[in-house]
Amino acid sequence: KMAAAAAAGSLWRAGWRLWRGRAVVSWQLCPPQRAVQASAVLRRVSDEQKKEPSVSSSQFDLHPNDYQPEQEPQGPHPSYTGQGGQESEDYESEEQLQHRILTAALDFVPEHGWSAEAIAEGAKTLGLSVAAAGMFHSDGSDLVLHFVSQCNTKLCELLKQEQKQVQLGEAEKKPTDQFLRDTVEARLRMLIPYIEKWPQALSILLLPHNIPSSLNLLTSMIDDILHYAGDQATDFNWYTRRAVLTGIYNTTELVMMQDSSPDFEDTWRFLENRVADAMNMSNTAEQV
Amino acid sequence: VYQVFQSVAKKYDVMNDSMTLGIHRIWKDIFVRKMNPSPGTLLLDVAGGTGDIAFRFLSYVRSVRERQLQRKLRQQQNLSWQEISETYQEDKVKSLGDSRVVVCDINKEMLKVGKQKAQHLGYSEGLSWVLGDAEELPFDDAKFDVYTIAFGIRNVTRIDLALREAYRVLKPGGRFLCLEFSHINNPLLSRLYDLYSFQVIPVLGEIIAGDWKSYQYLVESIRRFPPQEELKAMIEDAGFFKVNYQNLNAGIVAIHSGFKL
Question: Which CATH number fits domain A141-287: 1.10.357, 1.10.10, 1.10.1760, 1.10.530?
Fold first, then answer.
């Protein structure tokens, strides 16, 4: 009976991960066909680049090289060579450019909020026209989702580093409650520079058309945290643990929104209490 | 094409309203909303003779700017009266936030009608009227943030040249937007539409503008125009990225958008 439960659990989890993986793929900012086409050209161009180092390489200039290599032997027709005159061997894809614009736009969030205006300002700093903000959704959703995804990636890096340190024996393995507290605190601290406009971001994340993406980001973050916490459960506890941690994270985030104590002490104390509660709950459950 | 529009210029707006039952206003509103221009945008409206898109652009930018200023003022609650009046003054000067639109058309008559309309409606600042050919624009490279062509591209003889010119005059990151009649996929709707186009529109043309032939030409040019996917491919050929289209009214009209990256 235990083996059956374990098998069912792992099957569920595999399905869960598959669904998540698909959802992640669906939130890509560029249509799949173009990506394939672009990358086909990309490889060819980078080969061409190695043969003709004198050709001025310009980013995003995929099409001229694709369609007019014979007609214009002197080089591609005038195209975008911005970015402060940087010349690089590789060609950036549309996605990478979009990521760069969004990252640049984050600096303008404290002033303009999570909006198309911030994206337009970000595009301006990269030397692009403000109209480039038209590539994104007009309500600033893409900016928020990009930021959340960036924070999650940073968190993963942090956790990986810590795990490596433990494996190398440079640090002690933290007890679970300490680990959870530190991780959630680290993740929430990333919000501090944008804390004033964060309520706006939360409301954007709750918009119906954003819910699949935001939910996906949240669940993958919780999943990663528990993975690094050493969660090996294959039974029903897998769900309860995730639900509990999600609850802890969300409530702490909300408390942080209206916390005015120095360095958010109240928030961390709240977090400590919630994690302690959760630990007690699981101990009690075991006893039963 | 020149002759057609010379005779059509004066009655252009009236005919638009009657042919499309006034829906063309909604299409143009959706078009400008999709553009979502921010203050400080330089727009080139090609074949925009009577200025519909230009006026909508200016109103949109003005309201966005007002909202921006209101937000700024709300953050400055504790200023003295002196400082508040100073901010009001400097903001009045920039009520458009440096946005400008250049209306370019091949036809002098259409431009004349447009200038009169501007005066009549009270649009004075931020507008320029230039005579020019879409296949060979009289502008320097990389000057404009947005290039729009609403119901004009089907009248261009060499669409690929016009697209290439659009690419040339746009700044890096600039946007190409095209509003045009297109093809309906749904066969039933398509039949109804054909019926309406070939039976009703030339008749209206004769009654209202006294010109059957021009409107016959109009309807035929709509049929000859490439469908959505083909136009999208042509735009990509000109060098634009992230090209997509949005059908309005099931394909009667489509908005194509591309970026110069």
Answer: 1.10.357
